[in-house]
Design goal:
- The chain is an alpha+beta fold.
- The chain has one domain: Alpha-Beta Plaits.
- It has five helices and ten strands.
- Strands 1, 2, 3, 4, 5 and 10 form a six-stranded antiparallel beta sheet that branches.
- A hairpin with a 4-residue loop joins strand 6 and strand 7.
- Helix 4 runs antiparallel to helix 5.
- The longest helix has 14 residues.
- The chain is globular and about 45 Å long.
Length: about 210
């Protein structure tokens, strides 16, 4: 196993584009629109090229306050020349444009963006742990990721095989856009639970 990256390495831009995998989730407001806008914002940023997008999935919250709406989740793959911590900062900037609040741990949120992997980089930094410490256990990450890239690996293990073992995998279902005038699965009315919008990756999401 390679040594964990130093803080200096996390702050340094790579010499050539690196493949990074990001997870997006939302369970407040117009979640489908939010995910689409967030991906467009990431792709429009200097040093980021979105090269693959998973199908969207609807998932039950994992952890966090009871009675949250279901989540809409998606995985993307980007090629980036940004430093790992700069990519993280960009993700947080995009979250803020969608009024992300961090009040309740693992609470509902308008938008959550997590870096799952950054090339083969391994980090134990408290600000950015790589690979994401819970990614290998979470069906809401693994299932759509395996659909996007069945040959992917995380932490040396097959994403496809991990997806089959994830405890929450049975709750992951393909997103079906609602008919006009109906509330889509994974989309809560704007403002619902906004006082609790928060936390860390995805109710325990990610």
């Amino acid at each position: 196993m390679s040594a964990a990256a130093t803080r200096e390495e996390l702050e340094a831009a790579p010499s050539r584009p690196v493949i990074a995998v990001l997870a997006l989730g939302s369970n407040l407001g117009a979640s489908a629109d939010t995910l689409g806008a967030a991906i467009a914002q990431l792709g429009a940023a200097d040093g980021v090229d979105v090269v693959a997008e998973s199908p969207r999935v609807v998932t039950a919250p994992v952890g966090g306050p009871a009675d949250q709406p279901d989540y809409l989740n998606q995985i993307i793959e980007v090629h980036t020349t940004l430093a790992p911590l700069r990519l993280l900062a960009l993700a947080h900037e995009v979250e803020q444009t969608h009024h992300r609040e961090r009040i309740v741990r693992w609470g509902p949120r308008t938008l959550d963006i997590d870096i799952i992997t950054f090339g083969s980089l391994r980090s134990e930094d408290k600000e950015l742990t790589l690979p994401h410490p819970r990614a290998a256990e979470r069906g809401f990450v693994l299932v759509p990721w395996s659909w996007m890239d069945p040959g992917a690996f995380v932490g040396g293990k097959s994403v496809f095989e991990l997806a089959e073992l994830a405890a929450d995998a049975p709750s992951v279902r393909a997103y079906q856009p609602a008919a006009v005038g109906e509330a889509a699965a994974g989309e809560a009315p704007a403002g619902a639970g906004a006082a609790a919008a928060a936390g860390e990756p995805g109710a325990e999401q990610a």
